[in-house]
Amino acid sequence: MRLVAAPSYWYEVGSGIDKQLADDLRPDFPDAATFLVKQQPDADPEGVREAFQKAVSQLKSSQTPGQPQPRGAVVAVDAPPTHWRAEDFHDALMKLLTRVETAPRERQPEMLLGADRLASRLPNVILADKSADWDWSEWRRQLAAIGITYSSASEEPWAYTGRLLERVWSEYGDTDWGERAFLVLMDGTPVWIAERAPTLSAPSFSAD
What we know:
The chain has 208 residues and is an all-alpha fold. 49% of the residues lie in helices and 2% in strands. It contains 9 helices and 2 strands; from the N terminus they run H-H-H-H-H-H-E-E-H-H-H. The protein has a two-stranded antiparallel sheet with strand order 1-2. Helix 5 packs antiparallel against helix 7. It is elongated and about 80 Å long.
C-alpha cells in the first residue's frame, strides 16, 4: 500500500473520510452516519410550508379592508432553524463509544475514528442548539471517562483534544484506519499535535 499526504479538506464534514465511515457504520449506527455526512439537517418541508402560510396570513391581515388585492407580492419567510439537537448528537456519540469494546477488533478503529469526528463537532452543535453559556459539564465528565476530553485554553470556548485519534493510531497502526489517523496527526489537526510531535513516529508502510 502506498500512502500519500491527505489534504485538509478531506477531513471536513461530509468529505471523503466521513462518507466512507458513514457507509461502514450506517447499518448499526444510522444516526451517527447521518451526523457524519451532514453539517445540519435538511429543512423540514412541512415547517417551511407552515412558515409561508403564516407570512401570507400576516400580509393579508395588514391590508386595509376594501383595498384591491395585489396580483403578486414578495413574501419573506423565516424558515425553521436547521441545526442538530445537541441531545441527539451526544446520544449518537455515546452509543458509538460504548459499543467499541464489544465490537470485533476489525471494526473498532473505524468506530473510534467516527466518534473522534463527532466529538470534534459536539461543542459547535451545542453552541448552535443551546448557547455559549449552556452548562454541559456533566457531559464532559461523562465523555472524559471514556477517553474524550476538551480544553478551554484556546480561542474557542471548548476545543476537542483529539485523544481518540491518537488512540486509533497507537492501538491500530497496522490497519488502514490507523494509517489514516497517523496522516491526520501529521497534518496537525488536533490542538495538541505540536506538543507531542517529538513522541510521534510513523507506522511502517509496505511498498507496492
